[in-house]
Design a protein that fits this description.
Blueprint (H helix, E strand, L loop, with lengths): L5 E4 L5 E4 L2 E3 L4 H12 L4 E2 H9 L4 H18 L5 E3 L3 E4 L5 E3 H5 L7 H8 L15 H25 L3 H14 L4 H13 L3 H19 L5 H12 L24 H13 L2 E5 L6 H12 L9 E5 L9 H8 L10 H9 L5 E5 L5 H14 L4 E6 L9 E4 L14 H4 L3 H13 L9 H10 L4 H9 L6 H16 L8 H14 L3 H9 L9 H8 L2 E6 L2 E6 L2 H10 L4 E5 L2 E5 L2 H13 L3 H22 L5 H10 L1 H12 L4 H13 L1 H7 L2 H14 L3 H18 L2 H18 L2 H14 L3 H18 L2 H18 L2 H18 L2 H17 L3 H18 L2 H17 L3 H18 L2 H17 L3 H13 L6 H18 L1 H12 L3 H9 L6
Parallel strand pairs: 1-7, 8-11, 8-12, 9-10, 10-11
Antiparallel strand pairs: 1-2, 2-3, 4-6, 5-6, 13-14, 15-16
Helix pairs in contact: 1-3, 2-3, 5-6, 6-7, 6-8, 7-8, 8-9, 8-10, 9-10, 13-14, 14-15, 17-19, 18-20, 19-21, 20-21, 22-24, 22-25, 23-26, 26-28, 26-29, 28-29, 29-31, 29-32, 30-31, 31-32, 32-33, 32-34, 33-34, 34-35, 34-36, 35-36, 36-37, 36-38, 37-38, 38-39, 38-40, 39-40, 40-41, 41-42, 42-43, ...
């Protein structure tokens, strides 16, 4: 007789049953091991299991404990339960075991019809009384699946106008997650749709109260907008606001209904879908439309986010581009990829990576890393070939549907084809009296000859300004006869696009062609001033005895290229920016090479952006810095391209200009958080060139970067070399800056004082307020670290005066933050609050998350001093969220410790002990002063709660990983 299956219940409580008979295991550790093996049925090395469950024992003891536990499982449950060898252990896949959590996991891919039955399996969180390292992330993952399924079901009932059912499930969701804003949004909408606006508005009030009380935040903008709509009388078309940075195309999207539906379906079953096809087939536009349709889907709670990779030339910058989309900055020494993972790990996001083909390997590696580490992330990519990752769906983008011109379609038949509809709409925009009915057969022929490729069709329609539809069709026929000998089915799509581009290029005047190909050197986009400097066209007029030159009107030529759909234009602030589609840019580049103009154009491009960077350099340390930051941000891709091209040359002049460009961008990189990238460019430039004027500036710039990342010995060596060069040149400003940074990094007190004194004499001679402010800030920090608080206070006060006179808002903010820290050290809470609050204004304007987190931490400590534990807890959690986001490990630990101190004051002693225990594990990375304070807090807490209770929860805290401890400290606070 077959034995009854074993039922293992892990949701809500731990329970084992066979039939109706409960089975009890001897120890909690054995229960945890069984649960782990059941949830992870793959093979596990014995060493891994021993370390995971008995990591606080010696290796020999841990292996012995594992053997004992495995024997107990076999003895108490079934001999066939496990497959074990000398090296590995695995749950036997043939053993009859039903696990509620494994069954519940199917909810992620389940159809709506099965959701309710699967939701009934969730009786509570996974193993709620277990605190092993592996349990917490699994618990959060399953809880997130549960909440996501509830939201999906609510959205389903809402979309079917079954508002009572939607309300019922929204209430169930709030019973588990009382501060779930999305559930309140659904309640507000459903009550309003049922006509009960009063109750709908009460849901908003309850939502706002919950968010303030539990998370210390206000309702999101879309929630407020929904409330306002309800107050005004809810429209039947109301919907939630979108979370997205998707491009907003200026022209409408035509057709592709079947393709959109199929891609949506593929994204339901795969977390990586790559739209594959030749340039111009419409991958990017299709991706925008797909993502727009999913940006507000319940599945993607945090929306759809767009990353355009086309402007990048350096594969090392792929992660930087993705991070910039989420306003993440580098925080050395933490790798940027780790910062990205921490930001995305718990989010439900559709990430769109557009134009991966030229950065293929880097895109594939980053996609695999993110998908592996972030279980709720989905990626939609566009590329000319698949990324080649496991689980990827490579979806080849077809041509637009097109008519057979031999069938002589009627007007009604013609408008059923997407390609004809696209040509018709674009033609209407170009020719005011355009009527498709007058050119039906010709349009059918054009669409067929262009093989339904969207870019080619748009280019053809744009030519209606100068050619009739019949002339366009005739020119295309002539061109294609050369390629296919009349056989449309044999036409490769990339040749079709090249033919369309060749034809479009041939229609340009000679002057337009010259400008068009020279635009290929720009990356990302460009301004009119840059075009005029880099791509201006001069012609010689021979007249005796001299040769005169005249320059064509670049504005007229650029306008002509825009009209002919070869150049795109968009407004950025008060200025216009221009760009080439990537396919068009690649074509223009080939023409530039063919004309033997590539090297000269790249050199002009580099020289223009070198001039821009050197013009910006002093402005970045003045009251004009915000304007120049914005300008340099717009030109980031061009600056990178200029550096990369110069470093790829072998002549000394290019090496010297690369060094000058890197040196000019130092403060931009530092103040805007591109520290790791700046470090790389500076190191590469210094390797290539020994020109002393430029070398000294790059050396001191790299020294500043090394100071900020904490490598003080390297900083000192670089400053010493820079000082020698600057003294040889007699450059007093350079000498002063090198002395300031060298003095701050110097461990020898007497030499540090000597360097600071030298800097002071020079700054007074030069009357330079920025140098004076920098000297005071760094020397004040030096004094504060030595405990000379009086000296530090005087220096910070002086620094603030000098910084205000310099106009540098970054320096003003730094002076205020340092003064705030000092006031906090001295117990002057009111003064520190004033200083922090003023500093916060500057650093929020700068977007400096590192200093914002420092300020929120300081304000949290002030609130704690004032016994306002609720405010302290909220501020510290906001600081911790930011510090985790930027990967600031030391400060993450310090903030967890501070939250433990607040919990002690609140008499939440178990929470306090766990937090202090988790911080104690990381004590080697915090300052000695903090280590002593942790020890003092531990003694106080132990005395308050007793030895037995303290030892238990202390051990639980020490067993947490830093990620688990952070999640525990945040208590499910959302990322801000």
């Amino acid at each position: 007789m077959a034995q009854l299956p074993l039922h293992l219940y892990l949701l809500g409580s731990f329970r084992i049953e066979r039939g109706a008979r409960p089975i009890h295991l001897s120890t909690r550790k054995v229960e945890s091991l069984l649960a782990f093996l059941a949830l992870h049925p793959e093979e596990h090395p014995r060493e891994k299991l021993a370390a995971l469950f008995w990591g606080d024992s010696t290796d020999e003891q841990a292996r012995g404990s594992l053997r004992t536990a495995l024997n107990l499982l076999r003895a108490e449950l079934d001999e066939r339960l496990l497959r074990a060898s000398r090296e590995t252990v695995q749950f036997n896949p043939d053993f009859a075991l039903v696990t509620d959590a494994r069954e519940f996991e199917k909810i992620g891919d389940s159809a709506i019809s099965n959701l309710q039955s699967l939701l009934s399996l969730y009786h509570g969180d996974l193993l709620p009384d277990f605190y092993d390292d592996w349990v917490l992330p699994e618990r959060e993952r399953l809880r997130a699946l549960y909440l996501a399924a509830l939201l999906r079901l609510i959205q389903h009932f809402r979309s079917e106008s079954k508002y009572e059912r939607a309300i019922e499930w929204a209430r169930k969701l709030l019973a588990t997650d009382p501060a779930n804003e999305k559930a309140y949004q659904h309640l507000m909408f459903c009550y309003a749709a049922m006509g009960d606006r009063s109750t709908a508005l009460k849901q908003y009030d309850e939502c706002a109260r919950r968010l303030r009380d539990e998370l210390g935040v206000e309702p999101a903008r879309e929630t407020i907008t929904l409330r306002d709509q309800i107050q005004e009388e809810l429209s039947a078309q109301s919907r939630e606001a979108l979370f997205t940075n998707l491009p907003n195309p200026l022209t409408s999207f035509i057709g592709r209904e079947n393709e959109l539906a199929e891609i949506h379906q593929r994204l339901e079953t795969s977390r990586l879908v790559t739209l594959v096809g030749a340039g111009g087939c419409g991958k990017t536009r299709l991706a925008i439309q797909v993502a727009s349709g999913l940006a507000a889907a319940p599945r993607f709670k945090q929306g759809a986010w767009w990353v355009d990779l086309a402007p990048l030339n350096d594969s090392a910058l792929v992660a930087t581009a993705v991070a910039a989309t989420f306003h993440l900055r580098e925080s050395p020494p933490t790798p940027l990829t780790f910062i990205l993972i921490e930001h995305l790990r718990a989010k439900e996001i559709l990430l769109v990576l557009d134009n991966c083909e030229h950065l293929f390997d880097s895109c594939a590696r980053l996609a695999q890393t993110l998908l592996t580490a972030c279980p709720r992330l989905s990626i939609l990519a566009t590329s000319r070939s698949p990324l080649g990752l496991a689980g990827e769906v490579a979806w080849r983008v077809p041509s637009m549907s097109m008519p057979d011109p031999d069938d002589a379609p009627s007007l009604d038949q013609l408008t059923q084809f997407d390609a004809a509809r696209l040509f018709d709409e674009r033609a209407t925009a170009v020719v005011t009296n355009w009527k498709l009915a007058d050119h039906a057969s010709t349009v059918a022929r054009i669409c067929a000859r262009l093989d339904g490729i969207p870019l080619a069709i748009e280019l053809a329609a744009a030519r209606l300004k100068v050619l009739s539809a019949e002339q366009i069709a005739a020119r295309l026929d002539d061109c294609f006869d050369l390629l296919t000998a009349g056989s449309r089915t044999a036409l490769p799509r990339h040749q079709t696009l090249r033919a369309a581009m060749d034809w479009s290029f041939d229609l340009l005047s000679e002057e337009e062609r010259e400008l068009f190909r020279r635009l290929a050197v720009f990356a990302g986009g460009f301004s009119l001033e840059a075009v005029e400097a880099v791509s201006s066209i001069q012609y010689s007029v021979n007249s005796s005895p001299h040769t005169e030159y005249w320059t064509l009107n670049t504005v007229d030529l650029l306008t002509s290229l825009i009209d002919k759909s070869l150049v795109g234009v968009e407004q950025k602030g008060n200025a216009m920016r221009y760009r080439l589609l990537e396919t068009v840019r690649q074509y223009a580049r080939e023409k530039l090479v063919e004309a033997n103009e590539f090297e000269a154009s790249c050199a002009r491009h580099r020289d223009w952006f070198l001039q821009l960077a050197e013009q910006a350099d002093p402005k970045l340390r003045s009251g004009e810095q915000m304007e120049w930051f914005a300008r340099l941000e717009l030109e980031m891709e061009n600056l990178r391209a200029a550096l990369a091209w110069s470093l790829g040359q072998t002549d000394d002049a290019s090496a010297a200009r690369a060094l000058r460009l890197a040196g000019a961008l130092v403060w931009f990189w530092i103040m805007r958080g591109y520290i790791a990238e700046g470090r790389t460019w500076l190191e590469r430039s210094l390797e290539n060139c020994a020109i002393t004027p430029a070398r000294a500036k790059a050396l001191v710039g790299l020294a500043a970067v090394e100071y900020f990342v904490g490598t003080r010995a390297k900083c000192r060596a670089l400053c010493d070399e820079a000082l020698v060069l600057y003294r040889q040149q007699g450059d007093k400003w350079g000498i002063a800056l090198s002395a300031i940074i060298g003095g701050a990094a110097e461990s020898d007190r007497s030499r540090s004082s000597m360097l600071f004194e030298e800097a002071r004499l020079l700054e007074q001679e030069l009357k330079d307020e920025w140098l004076a402010a920098g000297t005071d800030v760094l020397q004040g920090g030096h004094a504060r670290r030595r405990g000379d608080l009086s000296r530090a206070g005087a220096l910070f006060e002086s620094a603030l005066d000098h910084a205000r006179r310099s106009g540098d808002r970054w320096m003003i903010g730094n002076a205020l933050v340092n003064a705030g820290h000092l006031a906090l050290d001295q117990g002057e809470d009111d003064r520190s609050t004033v200083l922090y609050t003023e500093a916060l204004k500057f650093h929020r304007e700068m977007g400096d998350k590192h200093q914002i987190a420092n300020i929120l931490y300081g304000l949290g400590i002030v609130a704690w001093h004032r016994d306002d534990c609720q405010q302290a807890d909220a501020l510290l959690k906001q600081s911790l969220t930011l510090r985790r986001e930027i990967g600031d490990t030391r400060d993450v630990v310090g903030t967890i410790w501070a939250l433990g101190r607040v919990a002690t004051t609140q008499q939440r002693y178990e929470r306090a002990a766990r937090l202090l225990g988790s911080a104690d594990v990381q004590r080697e990375i915090v300052f000695e002063k903090e280590r002593r304070a942790i020890d003092d807090d531990v003694r106080t807490l132990r005395a308050q709660v007793g030895e037995a209770m303290f030892d238990k929860v202390w051990a639980e805290g020490r067993a947490m990983s830093l990620h688990q401890a952070t999640e525990y400290a945040l208590e499910n606070v959302k990322t801000v």
